[in-house]
Each structure stands twice: as structure tokens, then as C-alpha cells.
Amino acid sequence: MAKYILKRILYLFLTLFIIATITFFMMKMLPGTPFSNQNRMSAEQLKIVKAQYGLDQSVFVQYIRYIGGLLQGNLGTSFQFNNEPVTALIGQRLAPSMQIGAQAMVVGTIGGILLGALAAIRKNTWVDTLATFISILGLSIPSFVLAVLLQFYLAYKWKIYPVALWDNFQSSILPTLALSALPLGTVARFMRTEMVDVMSSDYIELAKSKGNSSWGVVAKHALRNSLIPVVTIIGPMAVSVMTGSMVVENIFSIPGIGEQFVKSITTNDYPTIMGLTIFYSFLLIIVYLIVDILYGLIDPRIRLGNGGKE
Amino acid sequence: MDKILEVKDLHVDFDTYNGVVHAIRGVSFHLNAGETLAIVGESGSGKSITVRSILQLLAKNGTISKGEVLYHGDDLLQKTDKEMDKLRGNKISMIFQDPMTSLDPTMTIGKQVAEPLLIHNNVSKKDALKRAEEVLRLVGIPNPKARMNDYPHQFSGGQRQRIVIAIAIVDYPEILIADEPTTALDVTVQAQIIDLLKELQQKIGTSIIFITHDLGVVAGIADRVAVMYAGRLVEFGSVNDIFYNPQHPYTWGLLDSMPTLDTNESDRLNSIPGTPPNLLNPPKGDAFAPRNAYAMEIDEEQQPPFFKVSKHHYAATWLLHPNAPKVTPPASILNRYEKFKKLGGNVK
Amino acid sequence: MEQIPQIPKEKFRLIHDENNKDQEKIGTPSLTYMQDVRRRLFKDKVAVVCLALISIIVVISILAPIIAPHNPNAQQVTMSNLPPKLGNLNIPGMNGYQNMGGHMVDAYKQADAPKGTFYILGTDYLGRDLLSRIIYGTRLSLVVAVLATLVDLLIGVPYGIVSGWKGGKTDTFMQRIVEIVSSIPNLIVVILMMIILKPGLTSIVIAIAITGWVTMARLVRAQTFQLKEQEYILAARTLGEPSMKIATKHLIPNLSSTIIIQTMFTIPNAIFFEAFLSFIGIGIPAPNASLGTLLSDGQKAFRFLPYQMWAPAIILSVIMIATNLLGDGLRDAFDPQSSEN
């Protein structure tokens, strides 16, 4: 197991390096400069500014510098936003993003598990139909559509929640709801399929023949066995929550990194785009790694390595 | 002898995509205390469904449409789910066919074996685990103390079947239903499991219903045998009755396709031609008639009743009707009749 | 049991001479696999409704130039932000009235619209007919989805087949690439591509396809791996059939269910990405309409003119729901075990 984790961490760095390289050269391929908006700059000024950012050197030198900086945890300096270091930008904006992201993951995953389990236990009844319908809605309605609708009806029209304000927990409820729909739908669907499968397996029949009540079978055997594979989709869920957060943060004016990313795109702030790209990738790869290790820990067939005789 | 279990006129239907399948069409038999009853038949004859009906462990689309299952005279089919839960794994328990898939892959075997005790008896977890360890030793798991915390995938197929048996007997059930417990195993392991079951039966005095399609296995374990075909019993009697004085052409076919010590190298094993009927539309007459070389007109029109052969031996074939012509069974069956005479039996 | 029924003797005639005629008869007529799939699919009411919905939407999109009542990009500033109006039918919400300072006012009269002018779904801030824009927008979104799916098929399927079929070192190498591509969050790749390429239809398709093929390749590879070991493929190989022929005659037909089902999930995914990119402003450039740009425009005015967002939101959601459900239905139809037990 330790060897496996070490190997995975090595891969993590390799992947990050590849991403950084690709991002860097892609940005260099871009036509125009980030300063083309500020057309009042004279040629002299432009030269000074370029030198200041190291843009007067050859691409290769810039690349080495960039990677070197990365190794020291330096993601570069933003062209906009008062020349702040990208790491500082991320630092200021991480907390709100993390909060709604984590909340949405928790709500979506737990809600999805309950919904999916309920549908599987009450298979082919109206409960199943309703649960399936909810999960399809969650899967199909894009989070930004949901966010706008929630904002309009709950906040603007019925004034239950603040429209676009970021201060306390209450203001995080609507963005969390909007973001959790997709994980909820996905997890519910996955959970239902897994559990229906498990419920028809031989060991469930044996558990029933031991004298377990229907509830006992579910609680002691079916739930755990169907939950283990659900862990594997937490990674992709994190990706979708991240995607959603970019627009949802924008709609609710949450000062998070998603909003920052979209802003950087629209203002051609390349160092910030690059920095955030690498940061996002890092975050996701870490999530994938944790999920993998977690999966190994909770599934005895993997945990015990090659002790099996299959 | 006490009848501890009696199944009367059992009918089971399955609702399928193509229509209602009449899987069991009037099966009656009983189980005496302390004996082993084997139910034999080819795949799809309804053996498994019959015994699953006893514990009411049918798939969701299956319904018992008619019949009684009397356990000490009590009809189990009238019992509530809760009352059935109290019997399952406690008074009546079951061993399943495939040991590779019958154990919960994410629970230690100690816990799995102890589970019935914790459900039915008011015992502490510690005592239950201790008892589980004893039973694991009883079924021949080496070093059970250390292996209690292992998971199913760490055991071989034969060992897993021993664990499944341990789960079934941990609460000393009165009736043990073994649904093809040896089919998925190697031949040598099969013999070990049969021996283990026989040994356990003596130690804990349980009655066994043993389901198999393998007549060779039957000879080694059963006291009485019931032969099943297309959702009905066709013949039942003691092991000697069935093996040496079979009356139903289907039983003849089964025995004729089984190699014995007397089979010479040059002898060809015979098979029964054709396939079992479609139980979506069960035949009006004897379901075996289309495959039966001895079929008569009456077989296509009317289902044969059970004719008495000897005190405990009955067969459902029109050949036993007084008006039926005298037919000559296959040669291997005639050999068996000879043996039956030597054993002191009366051959008709 | 003890009573012996009285039956006439002639009934006991042996009939074994003719006994073999029926025994091989199978009870139900046999269907080919595809017939069976079709039968199961058409028995699934939800799938049928979704199929019908999707067909209608596709037909309308194809016939957009004929059906759309106006030019989708024609601006008519005097007619801006008119609410929906359906002829002279006085349906609330569809009668051309809108709330202005607490009063319901006939917006068409205020805009001095000529008598008989009406926009079924209203107009946007530039006076463009929303219905026409939605019809054209849906068409554009569907084009993106179809193209992205096609690229997905053209890269993913051959990649998966080659990787699974060759096995060994080739497979390991090809899988490494898949691993790296899939460990980069696809959204980021899409966004980077969108920044580098000029915004537009082609770049969206390229951006979506560049990450989308990975899932298809994985599924096809896994399936090919299994199929490779099947007896009939082994037989074909032993008989020396050329690889190309095996691939087209044996592999593709057996892979078709996997491919079709995955395609049904690629389509909503592509539609979502287009909408997402256009929504954050790096997708389809103005003045062309797509569901994403319509949503983005609608969102800006949503507080005051909610109808401008409702219509595209509903169409987008309906397409997403219908394709997802049809995908489910197809999976059940191809693999009855997944739903029946």
C-alpha cells in the first residue's frame, strides 16, 4: 500500500509538470499581449513593463523561470489586480470556494446516497419513480440555470435569502443548493444501480436466510457493499462541483476562486489563468488520490493486497 | 418416524417478461426427523424453487399460488414476515450453491458466522464469536481463531463452502436445506463436503433436504430420494427403491446416463433426448411424454397420478396402470433390478 | 393415490415411433438481438416519449429556416424587450401585457407596434424575435453536440479498439496517454483551448472533443478486451481472417451497444459544455444564438423580464432530460439484466 501511494504521488508530480508545461506553452502561443488593452502605453513604457514581468527574455528562459518558481510554490504575478502574486490571490479567495464546494459535496453525496438507497429498496414503486425523477432533474438542469432560478425566486421575489451577498452561513445556502444538484443526481443514480445489483446477489439471500429482517439485511450487508463503489465517483463529482462553482460564484457574487478564474479569462490575465489552472489540477489530483486511498482502506479486497486467492 | 416438515400440493408461479411461468405444479413430499431427503432433477426442474418456497426466499416476481408447508403441523405460508425471520437461520437454515458469491465480501467471516446467533439468541457478541470459532473448527477450518478476522476472498472455494455450512449450522437448526452445495466444487472437495455434512448430521441430529442434479452424490448421502421433472415430482422412495427398482421412464433415463462401476469401457453413456418443456404453457398430459420413448397416448392427454410401488415407493407414470402394456426398460435398468432382487426386494 | 383411475385400454398404445417430432420445438418465436432491443425499447414508455421529443426538436432544428417566423439576428430596436404575445388570444403571460410600475400595460401598444405584430416568445433587448433565436440556438447547440460526438466516435472508438486488440506494450503505452489526459480536469482543457482558439463553433467542438474521446476509448477498450477472448473471435483469428475484417464484421457490431449508450451520454455533455462556455462568455460569439448565449443574455435581464430566460432554460433542460432518459432506456433495452432482476 505504501509503495502504491508513493507511486501515485510521483505520478501526481509528473502530471502537474505536464499540465504546467502545456499551460505555459499554450499561453505563449496566444496572439497579442496582455497589455494590448492598455493602448495608451508608449513603446518605452511597454518595454519597461515587459522587462518587469520577464517577458523580454526568450520563451525557453521564461519557461525555466516559471517551472523554477512553481517548485518554490510561486505561481507568478497577476497582470491585473494590482500585480498581486497569484498565490496571494488564491489565498484570499480560497475560503468561500472551499466552503460552498465542501458543503455542496457533502449535501450532494449524502442526499444522493439516501435517495439512491431508498429507490433501490423500494424498487419499481412510486418511491423509486420519484427518486429517479429527482435524480434525473439534478443531472440534467445545469447548475447555472438552477442558480439563477433559485436566486430569482427564493431571494429576489420571495426574499427568503439575501440576493447576492457573502457574509454568513445563510448566504451560502443557495449556492450550495445550486451546486449540489448534479452530485446528488449522479450519486443517487449510481447508488441505485449498485444497490439493486447488491440486493440481488447471493450473499444478500444468505443474509436473509440467516433470519435477518429486511431492514437488517439492508443495514448490515447491502448498504456497506453498495457504498464502497460510490466512493469512486467522488472524484468526478469534485470536478463537476468545481465547474459549477465558476458560474455559481459569479451569479451570487461570491468572492471565490471560481469567480476569479472567469474574471481572469475575460481580462486575458494569463499568469492568473495559468496559476489557477495548475492550482485546480493540483486540487483535483489530490482529491483523486485521497479517494483512491480511501477506497483501498474501506474495501478489504483491496486493503489486504494479494492475500486473495481469486 | 416424525414428519417434521410436510409440503402439500405446492404451486409456484413466476411473473416474467414473456408471461406467467408455472414453475412448480403441485409438489408434495415430507421430511422425517433425522433423515436426509435428496431432491434430484435436471436444471430448471424446480428443485431450488421448491426448497426456497419452504423458507419463502423466492425472487420478487415469484408467488406461491397454492399449497401448504407444514412445519411441525404449522403452515409456514400463513406466517408473517417477522415470524418467518425467527425461523430462518435458527430452526431451518440453508446452504447455497456457489460459495464464491454467497459470503459478504466486506465482512469478516467470524462476524458472518456469529450473525445468526446474535439475531436469534440473546447472547453477547463475545460469546457469539466464541461459538462461531468452535463451529468453524467443527467444519474443518484450520486455525479458526486466527482466521476469524479474515475476509472471504482469503479462503479457497472448498473452505468458503465450509464457512457457508458453519453459518447454516451455527444455531443447530432442525432442518438444513442444502441447495446443490457441491456443484461448484472440485470432485475431491465435493466428497469432503458430503462427508462433513454426514458427520455434522450425526453430531447435531439435523434433518437434511439435499438438492442435486448429480445422482452419484445422492447415493452417498440420502436416505430417501424424490425425482423431480418440470415442476412436479415423478417418483419418490428410499435410496434403494430409486436406484435399484426405478419405475418412471425419467428415472430410468437419469440412471441410464450415469456411469457406474459396472459400466464397461465399451459401453456408451446414454442421454435423454430433447429438452424440458416450456413452463409458460405446461403440457396437458405428462410433461415428460415428448422425450419419453415409452410414451403412450394417455400420457399426452392426462397427467399420471402416483401409483404405489411398495410401502414408501411411488411413481407417477401410466406404465404402472393395470391396463398398460408391459415394457422392457433399458438394459442397465434391468441390471439394477437384478441387484434389487439380491438385496431382497420385490421387482414387479 | 391409492385409487387407480379407469381408463380404456386403447389409450395405452405406445407412440414412441412419432415421439421425436416435437421435442426440439421452442415455445416462443425467437427474435434477433436487434429486434429484441427494439421491442424492449418501444415497450419503455418513458424512452418512447423522450425519443419523440428529441425527434421533434431535431426536426424543428433542421427546418429552422422554414419554421422560424423571423430572422434570428435581425435587430429592431423599437421593438425591444416585448413580452410574449400569441396572436390576439388573451392568455395571461402570453397577451403582450407586462407589469410596469404596478400596472399591467400593453407593451406592444407602447412600442407602437403595427397592428397584428406579435412575438410568441417576445423579443430581446435588441428587438430580436426570441422564438426564432431559440430555434436557431437549439440548432446550433445540436450541431455542436453532433459534431463533438462524431469526433468522439472517430477518435475514441478506433483508439479503444486498437488499444484493446493489440494489448501488451501498445496497450500500456496508449493507456498511459489516456491516464494523463483524463487526470487533467477536462473543463480546464476546454477553457484553455477556448482561450487559444478563436471563439466559435469549430473551437468549441475541438475543445469538447479533445477531452471527450477518453471515456469512449476506455469503454471500447474494456469491451474489446472481453470480446477478444470470445470463441467466435478466436475462431475467426485462427482461420486467418484479416484484422480489418474481424474488426468490422465481429467487433463493431458487438461494440455497438456500448457505443450507442455512451453516445447518448456524450450528447447532453456536449450541450452542457457549449451552454457553459457561452454562459461565461467564451463560447459562440455574438450575434449568433446558441442555448448558452440565450441563457447568458436572459440571465442579465432575468429579474425584470424572466420570460427571456425561461424559454431557453426549459428547452435546454428538456433536451438534457430527454437524452439522459433515452440513454437509460437504451441501456436497459440493450442489457435487459440491468433492469429486470
UniProtKB/TrEMBL annotation, chain A:
UniProt domain ABC transmembrane type-1: residue ranges: 94-295
Protein keywords: Cell membrane, Membrane, Transmembrane, Transmembrane helix, Transport
A Pfam family: BPD_transp_1
Gene3D superfamilies for this protein: MetI-like (1.10.3720.10)
Domain of life of the native organism: Bacteria
Membrane topology note: Multi-pass membrane protein
Family annotation (InterPro entries): BPD_transp_1_N (IPR045621), MetI-like (IPR000515), MetI-like_sf (IPR035906)
Alphabetical GO biological process terms: transmembrane transport
Location(s), subcellular: Cell membrane
Parts of the chain that traverse the membrane: 9-27, 100-121, 133-153, 173-191, 227-252, 272-295
One cellular component (GO) term of this entry: plasma membrane
Keyword Lipoprotein: no
Family membership noted in the UniProt record: Belongs to the binding-protein-dependent transport system permease family.
Name of this chain's protein: Oligopeptide ABC transporter permease
From TrEMBL, chain B:
Keyword tags: ATP-binding, Cell membrane, Membrane, Nucleotide-binding, Transport
Classification via Pfam families: ABC_tran (PF00005), oligo_HPY (PF08352)
Tagged with keyword Lipoprotein: no
GO cellular component terms, A-Z: plasma membrane
UniProt entry tagged with the keyword Methyltransferase: no
ABC transporter domain boundaries: 5-255
Membrane topology: Peripheral membrane protein
One MF term in the entry's GO annotations: ATP hydrolysis activity
GO biological process: peptide transport
Main location: membrane
Location(s) in or outside the cell: Cell membrane
PROSITE patterns registered for this protein in UniProt: ABC_TRANSPORTER_1, ABC_TRANSPORTER_2
Family to which this protein belongs: Belongs to the ABC transporter superfamily.
Alphabetical list of PANTHER family matching this protein: DIPEPTIDE TRANSPORT ATP-BINDING PROTEIN DPPD (PTHR43297:SF2), OLIGOPEPTIDE TRANSPORT ATP-BINDING PROTEIN APPD (PTHR43297)
Descriptive protein name: Oligopeptide ABC transporter, ATP-binding subunit
Species for this entry: Companilactobacillus paralimentarius DSM 13238 = JCM 10415
TrEMBL record, chain C:
Location relative to the cell: Cell membrane
Predominant localisation class: membrane
All copies of domain ABC transmembrane type-1, residue ranges: 138-327
Topology versus the membrane: Multi-pass membrane protein
Transmembrane segments: 46-68, 140-165, 177-197, 203-220, 259-284, 304-326
A Pfam match: OppC_N
Record bears the keyword Membrane: yes
Any GO BP annotation: protein transport
Keywords, alphabetical: Cell membrane, Membrane, Peptide transport, Protein transport, Transmembrane, Transmembrane helix, Transport
GO cellular component: plasma membrane
Keyword Cell membrane included in the entry's annotation: yes
SUPFAM superfamilies attached to this UniProt entry: MetI-like (SSF161098)
Family assignment from sequence similarity: Belongs to the binding-protein-dependent transport system permease family. OppBC subfamily.
Name this protein carries in UniProt: Oligopeptide ABC transporter, membrane-spanning subunit
Species this chain originates from: Companilactobacillus bobalius DSM 19674
Lineage of source species: Bacteria, Bacillati, Bacillota, Bacilli, Lactobacillales
